[in-house]
Amino acid sequence: AQSVTQLGSHVSVSEGALVLLRCNYSSSVPPYLFWYVQYPNQGLQLLLKYTTGATLVKGINGFEAEFMKSETSFHLTKPSAHMSDAAEYFCAVDSNYQLIWGAGTKLIIKP
Amino acid sequence: DAGVIQSPRHEVTEMGQEVTLRCKPISGHDYLFWYRQTMMRGLELLIYFNNNVPIDDSGMPEDRFSAKMPNASFSTLKIQPSEPRDSAVYFCASRGQGTNTGELFFGEGSRLTVL
Predict the structure, then answer these.
(1) Which of A55, A85, A95, B19 is 20 to 30 A from A16 in CA distance terms?
(2) Among candidates A41, A49, A101 on the partner chain, residue whose Cβ is nearest the Cβ of B103
(3) In this predicted structure, what is the pLDDT of residue B1?
(4) Which of A51, A98, A103 sits opposite B100 (nearest CB)?
(5) Which residues contact A10 (CB under 8 A, 6 or more apart)?
(6) In angstroms, rounded to a whole number, what is the distance separating the alpha carbons of residues A91 and B63?
(7) Cα(A56)–Cα(A78) distance, integer angstroms
(8) Chain A residues within 8 A of B101 when measuring between CB atoms
């Protein structure tokens, strides 16, 4: 069965530091991969997606993620964290037309 | 274009009462999803519709939950009778035909508290 694992329910970084949120998946077929962001008291918003083609994909707000098939990973990064990035981030896998969600990672930004 | 619109944003009710949550999807979107989010269980898909027809309701917790989509621009999720364990944030999401399964547009959610 397909599954998504996000390592770390909470990640804390200093403002200006690198953001790295980890996502690993299992899928029996080539997956489509997504990252969503949820700001406090709001719905989820698509941050970026990988479907086919270039394995490094860029999203909104300076985030990017790289699909690494050999490692079954799709980690989310941002070179320099801003206070406004504080939110919860969800990784999701679309495999066989079913969307499987990770448990989410809360990103905390320290001033 | 307006996004997915949900109402009410907040609902506080007493155990045993009926609760109705409403959703207006983005115009032209053919798929509508109802999700529930809790700290313990994360994001759970309850039911989804395609062209107003329920396709998969396997996530609906029990018979107390029901969902309808009488037309392309309106859906309801009803809980009758409500119980404290139903307290959660309920999200509606929609997507267009021909887009990836994962490209959803979410509403801002309805936070339900059952006392």
Answers:
(1) A55
(2) A49
(3) 63
(4) A51
(5) A105, A106, A108
(6) 30
(7) 13
(8) 32, 94, 97-99
For residue B96, give both structure tokens: 């267009």
DSSP-assigned beta bridge partners for residue B6: B23
**pLDDT tens for residues A21-73?**
999 998 777 789 999 999 999 999 999 999 888 899 999 999 999 999 899 99
pLDDT in tens, A75-95: 999 999 999 999 999 999 987
Phi, psi of B55 (to 5 degrees): -100, -45
Q: What's at A92, amino acid-wise?
A: A
Instruction: Write down the pLDDT at residue B97.
Output: 81
Mutation for testing the B interface, residue in A99, A100, A101 having most B CBs under 10 Å? A99
